[in-house]
Amino acid sequence: MLALLGGLANAQTQPIWGKSPIAEPYAYVGNGSFSGPAVPESVDPLVAYRWPSPKATDALEVYLLKPKVVSADKPASFANLTSLTGNAPDVTVTGAGTIVLDFGCESAAWVEFDSPDCPGGVEMSISEYNQPAPHKTMAPVKHGDTYRLELNKELYEGVRFAWIHVKSSASPWHIKGIRAVCQVKPTNYAGSFSCSDPMLTKAWYMCAYGVKICLVSDYFSSILMERGDRIPWVGDAPASQAAALVAFGNSDFVKANIDITAGGNNGIIAYSLYWVIGLLDYYDYTGDGAMMKKHMDAACAILDKAYNIYGTNPALRFFGWDERLCAGFEIWYRAASPEAQEAQNAYKMLSIRLWKDFAAAMGAYGRADLQAKYAGYAEAKMAELRNNSTWYSGFGLHALAEVAASGMLSSSERQAIVEKEFLDRVNRLSLDPFCQLFIIEAMARMNRYDDAFSSIRDLWGGVMKLGGTAPWECYRPSWNSGIGVNDPAPNSQSGITSLCHPWGAGPVKWLHEEVLGIKPTSPGFKTYDIIPHLGRSLTHVTGKTPTPHGEISASFDVATGRCRVSAPVGTIGKIGIPKVEKTIAAISINGTVAWNGTFHAVTGIGSASQDSEFIYFAAVQPGIYSMEVSYNGNTPVYCEPPETYAAKFVKLDSTTSGNWGGVYGKDGYVLCNYNGGGVDKTNLPSYISSISYFRAFGGSAKNENRLAPDPVLWASSTNDTRAASADSMNGEMRNAACVSNGDQTMTLTIGVKAEHDYQVALYFVDWDKQGRREAVEMMDATTLKLVAPVKIVDSFAGGKYLVFTYNKSAKFRFNKVRGETVTLSGIFFDSTP
Q: Which residues contact 150 (CB under 8 A, 6 or more apart)?
């Protein structure tokens, strides 16, 4: 075991090694070998490991990780500290201090250290971030000479970082071992992907790894270190199951997860439709007709219910964390509000898409009656929508992505929809990586591949730039300018943002099917297409897809013209040679000219044809095909659109403090909860029609709350200049107050009577010096699109202002990053300079 596990050190970034001195709940990885290829783009310590015939009934196993980087707040207290990264740790502890351990990648793990003489007085912490997670610090449990942090009965959490807190040390003692014990479901990489953009390749492996470490013994789950909802989430499953089918080929485990989640929706109506998506993916990739028959009635019942409630604005409860989808469970808090309409539209379009997709599956299965029924549903509702020629004018990105992904748009509708929602580099991204899968699927159907690549780079690539090693639950690219690598990320109503959330694994299947181009055209890959889309951004792509017949592999290099396809017995394919906006003079296959303007017969290929984008070879028989393509001309360069915002962020002011008079508020102001008792002090300018809060406790403005705690009045009649002055005279006596929320978010909406240029300054003060950190999002109050980059407010015990300009109604969301509450103390209006 020791020699075997040590062999990975040179192949991967994180070595795995040895055994713990104490009993662990699972057997150690060890009955396979590191016989797979090393993949530098992957952080998975076991990417090269191959188990012999892993199956769904296999129990979890464990492996050990050493920390990659070790530091301490008081290095003098820890002699020989760097030995913790080696094979023979031997640290002498001589005083108080904290050791910080970075294991280099997210894992489903627990953390232990060994000491023969630890006197006690030690606590441990873990986190996905570079700061201890809230409520994840406690004294370790002693097992002989081993000390293990045990935060729950299952032991594991999402672990990237760990801390050993030494409170005091009367005499020297020693640390002889340190490790993260990582659990893993035996799972081999049966698929692969690589392309000329390293970021896209890394995104594929990051997302696949995020799914792998969330597999538990019996179902697909997620680490969710803080939230405690380790259950089979039906809505998360389509992206993670699809990634598993492509990357791991573990169809038996996908099948088990579909069985265990059948009939459930976690109380969220749209999740039933997502379950159908997972069933269709499984059927496409496996051809398992018995499984389809088993669940056909359940799928039909879900689709029929969607038809019966179509257009009735059902109680969705949740449709996503994005503001345009009512910011998660706010759809439940006030489901009848206009802000929920995009979610209702998206649910309708999702229904249309699923009726169409299920109809196609029923055609392949041989149920012409069900094919006709559900195709009829989709066509009838689309015809109903088209009674209004501008039916999509009130639809936003998420709703239009669903119907575009169905392929049911006309060419004129596609063009109009692209211009309406898909060219805005900022707002064509969802806050949800899960929802972004449907958006890039829509881009593919509308032949906007380069825009899809751009959005993957912006979203999943941005996550990796912040140190992410698995897909995140939520993300905005502008976070990168406000938080550092591995810093705590802004939260949403999801709670603490999960940094390993397999619902964000959509790029795995999408890159395989749309870029590499391998996809089944009949269940189980009896027939398949290989139609690669490299756009203007990529020059080569290569990879393989596991199928019931064996792997299908392909590579295309449009710079050299060298291409290769391999297909197993039992399959018939169609291959598209991409023109990439060049002209193709000739194609040779296995040394024989197959195309030079006309088709020349080649063994194993039935016929050829072409359109503006590809030369196609049909009826491709099993075998290996090496191709040489002679290209003429050049592919145009893709011009990525700039990131633009409708509003302007002016500045962060950390000097004015509470002396706002003469600096801000010349047109008007709101001093939040200024006199306590939930009463704001307000002097609104003529162009402001309203100020309203949501889940912001302590303000007298319109405030839709279910439960409101006592308003926060920190101090009254104080001469502390951090407190906002009572008026523009900057008098000495002031009140320190705020509206606040102890959960994760609150919002402020500013109503503007008509378009009017104005400046708004928001005042924050961390009065009681809790180390608060907040992320501030600014949206248009009508469209709920992001109109300014997200700004982080931290270190504001002395008071700070964020200053913006805009000309319409605006909605601000204040998201907790760290601290017990999010707060806002003042709102100040001025004419734009």
A: 110, 140, 141
DSSP annotation of 689 reads E
d(CA 744, CA 490) in angstroms, rounded, equals: 9
What would the two tokens of residue 266 be?
Answer: 């976690």
CB atoms inside a 10 Å sphere around CB 3: 6
DSSP 3-state of 184: strand
The answer to whether residue 729 scores a pLDDT higher than 70 is: yes
* Average pLDDT of the residues in 586-600: 96
User: What is the residue type of 580?
Assistant: V
Q: Is 244 left (phi over 0), alpha (psi -120 to 50) or beta?
A: alpha
Query: How far is Cα 577 from Cα 590, in angstroms, rounded to an integer?
Result: 15
447: alpha, beta or left, given left = phi > 0 and alpha = psi -120 to 50?
Answer: left
Reported as half-sphere exposure (CB side, CA atoms, 13 A), residue 496 has a value of 24
So what's the pLDDT on residue 170?
Answer: 87
State both tokens at 509: 């299947």
Q: Token digits for 411? A: 């060419």
Residue 49 near residue 31 (C-beta atoms within 8 A): no
Residues 764, 825: contact at Cβ < 8 Å? yes
Whether residue 685 is predicted with pLDDT greater than 90 in this model: the reply is yes
pTM equals 0.95
Provide the sign of the torsion angle of the four alpha carbons 511, 433, 343, 354, taken in this order. Answer: positive
Q: In whole numbers, what is the pLDDT of the chain averaged over residues?
A: 93
List the end-to-end C-alpha distance of the chain, in Å, as a whole number: 70
| Bridge partner list, 527 | 572
Q: Report how many helices (DSSP H) and strands (DSSP E) the chain contains, helices first.
A: 15, 40
Q: Which residue has the tokens 């009656």?
A: 369
Residue 626 near residue 564, CB atoms below 8 Å: yes
Collapsed DSSP state (helix, strand, coil) of residue 359: helix
| C-alpha span between 220 and 340 (Å, rounded) | 29
Residues 624-649, buried b or exposed e (16+ Cβ, 10 A)? ebebbbebeeebeeeeeeeeebbbeb
Fill in the amino acid letter for 92: T
Q: How confident is the model over 774-781, as a mean pLDDT?
A: 98
**Amino acid letter for position 383:** A
Strand order, beta sheet including 822-824: 712-718, 734-741, 822-824
* Torsion over CA: 426, 428, 433, 437 (sign): negative
How does DSSP assign 254-308, residue by residue? Answer: HHHHHHHHTT--TT-HHHHHHHHHHHHHHHHHH--HHHHHHHHHHHHHHHHHHHH
Tokens found for residue 606: 């039935």
Q: Which residues contact 366 (CB under 8 A, 6 or more apart)?
A: none
Other C-beta atoms closer than 10 Å to the C-beta of 368 total 11
Q: What contacts 501, CB < 8 A, 6 or more positions away? A: 210, 222, 224, 236, 433, 470, 471, 472, 473
In sequence order, the 6+-apart residues with CB closer than 8 A to the CB of 319 are 270, 325, 326, 331, 343, 346, 347, 398
- Dump pLDDT digits (tens) for 525-550: 999 999 999 999 999 999 999 999 99
Q: What share of the chain is helix, strand, coil (3-state, %, to 5)?
A: 25, 30, 45
- For 3-96, list the strands marked E by DSSP: 27-28, 61-65, 69-72, 78-79, 91-93
Q: Report the distance separating Cα 39 and Cα 535, nearest Å.
A: 25
461 C-beta neighbours (distance < 10 Å), count: 21
Sign of CA dihedral 254, 257, 261, 263: positive
Assign 3-class secondary structure to 638-653: CCCCCCCCCCEEEEEE
Compute φ and ψ for 17, nearest 5 degrees. Answer: -160, 150
561: left (phi over 0), alpha (psi -120 to 50) or beta: left
Give per-residue burial for 149-173: e unless 16+ CB within 10 Å, then b.
Answer: bbbeeebbbbbbbbbbbbeebeeeb
